[in-house]
Amino acid sequence: MRALKSLFAAALVLAAATASAQPVKIRFAYVVPVANWPSILFEKQGLARHLGKSYTYEAVRFQGTPPMITGLANNEIEIADLAFASFAIAVENAGMKDLRVIADEFQDGTPGYYTDEYFVLKDSPIKTVKDLKGKILATNAAGSAVDIVMRAMLRKNGIDDRKDVNVVEAAFPNMKAMLTSKKADVIPAVIPFSFDPDLRAASRVLFTQKDVVGGRTQMIIWAARESFLKKNRAAMVDFMEDSIRAVHWWLDPKNHKEAVEIAARVSKRPAAAFDKWLFVKAGQEGDYYRDPNLLPDLKALQANIDLQQKLGLLKGKVDVSKLNDLSIVKEAAKRVK
């Protein structure tokens, strides 16, 4: 009997050891191919040294960031590429108090870098934001960052976003068609769709995100639940190390040609669609700002979320200083030479 108990105990220890040795599953949600890191992060072979050892990786595409909140709540994803607006909604309105900011994706409106644009048709009678009253506005998802910014601009100009306009949803790749077919009077266009030459030829910019915010927006952050981070800290440090190494490679100008080729392959679009702007600092003709060590601007993030609360879109105040864990990305950065 003792022998059987000892054998059973040994089997349990072995099973536990085997389980702990299994790589941690990391499913990372994103919206826009190429423009969002998760879609291309490890497409350059050899950069992810810990992949398949301490963790596995899968990029999962969503239409917008708000649906990622449900994905996190249902344990369908481990990390979400959340807009500042969706992060705040998840914490305050959806009650996910254990959600943590863990890294930067990109920042909008940083001096010398791109800021999102809102387009109307070139021959549209809409000349100012005040002319949008009674019009149809497109958004990718209610509560997304571009949606919040658009609503903020309306309210700044005395337009009630709930009563004075009609808002319809469309995926970013379909925005051009929404505008040119006159199913929407104004559309938000994010990189890379804003650089579509046909869109540029048919439209003009009504306003930019920087016009609304007045400065930098911590547009997208990486977010994960605290329980997952605590349970899998070692694997997450490995993942962040690989991510920072990959980001350094992508941002290095000497790798631009190969980066563009990979982007073209991943997106199934011509390389010319990426060559002039991808990871390039060139104002409105270049890319967003991306921190090379994946460090978010928490001061900007707080200001962005405060704007959201001011618009009445949050139940209460969200204190970013209590909702971040940058220790993992900072530890990982020390490993990368």
What's a quick, concise take on this entry?
The chain is of the alpha/beta class and 337 residues long. The protein has two domains: 23-107 and 217-335, Periplasmic binding protein-like II (D-Maltodextrin-Binding Protein, domain 2); 117-213, D-Maltodextrin-Binding Protein, domain 2 (3-Layer(aba) Sandwich), CATH 3.40.190.10.
Describe, in plain words, how this protein is organized in 3D.
The protein is of the alpha/beta class and 337 residues long. It folds into 2 domains: 23-107 and 217-335, Periplasmic binding protein-like II (D-Maltodextrin-Binding Protein, domain 2), CATH 3.40.190; 117-213, D-Maltodextrin-Binding Protein, domain 2 (3-Layer(aba) Sandwich), CATH 3.40.190.10. 39% of the residues lie in helices and 18% in strands. The protein has helices at 2-21, 37-40, 66-73, 84-93, 145-156, 175-180, 197-202, 209-213, 226-231, 233-251, 256-267, 298-310, 327-335, and strands at residues 24-30, 55-61, 79-83, 99-108, 117-121, 136-139, 166-169, 187-189, 203-208, 217-225. The strands form 3 sheets. Strands 2-1-3-10-4 form a 5-stranded mixed beta sheet, sandwiched between helices. A 3-stranded antiparallel beta sheet has the order 8-5-9. A two-stranded parallel ribbon has the order 6-7. The longest helix has 20 residues, at 2-21. The chain is globular and about 60 Å long. The chain starts with a helix and ends with a helix.
